[in-house]
Amino acid sequence: MPVFSGRDLNSLEDVNSPSPTDNYVLTYDSATGMWLPEDATDLAATKLREKEVMWYFADVLTSDDYHGRYINVACTMTKVRCERNAGTSYTFNIEKRPEGSAFSAGTDIWSADEVITANESITVFSSGAVSAGTWLYMDVSAVSGSVTDFLVAAVLTVD
């Protein structure tokens, strides 16, 4: 293996950066197996802007509010992915509650509760904007059959 002197990254066999440029970073491209330069400003504006909030429940669940997740920056909800194991259906909404009111009723992201009967992704929201300093709660309104596991992932994009 050749000794790397630290002076020329492009001399490494898995790096393709012949002309280093200010404010660029190396990112790995699994399709080519190479480290390639990418504008750090573009990277921050796109790839680093997504957050994911997850809830996982095991065993039989009942109607209740579950597991608040704190969002510290303004975001827009873009997708909610749901996976249900066993049982018939799972009915829920996600509530937004302002900081200082985490234990009070909030604003639902859907105008009506979602009924999940299969694994699915939801991309339409009546209230998808999430302000900085917001708690997100999973509000379960009904469980049908013996749902053994339920997983919800809310995907948010930082505004």
Task: Describe this protein's structure.
There is one protein chain. This protein is mostly beta strands and 159 residues long. The protein has 2 domains: 9-45, no CATH class; 50-158, Jelly Rolls (Sandwich). The chain has 1 helix and 12 strands. A hairpin with a 4-residue loop joins strand 1 (24-29) and strand 2 (34-39).
Question: Brief overview, please?
Answer:
By secondary structure, the protein is mainly beta. It has one helix at 40-45; strands spanning 24-29, 34-39, 50-58, 64-71, 75-85, 89-98, 107-108, 114-116, 120-122, 129-130, 134-144, 149-158.
Uncertain runs are none
Number of separate helices: 1
Specify the CATH class of the largest domain.
Mainly Beta
**How would you sum up the global shape?**
elongated
CATH architecture classification of the largest domain: Sandwich
Mean pLDDT reading: 82
Task: From the structure above, extract its key features.
159 residues; Jelly Rolls; 2 domains; 5-stranded antiparallel sheet; 1 helix; elongated
Q: Secondary structure elements and their pairing?
A:
Layout: E1 24-29, E2 34-39, H1 40-45, E3 50-58, E4 64-71, E5 75-85, E6 89-98, E7 107-108, E8 114-116, E9 120-122, E10 129-130, E11 134-144, E12 149-158
Antiparallel strand pairs: 1-2, 3-12, 4-11, 5-9, 5-10, 5-12, 6-7, 6-8, 6-11
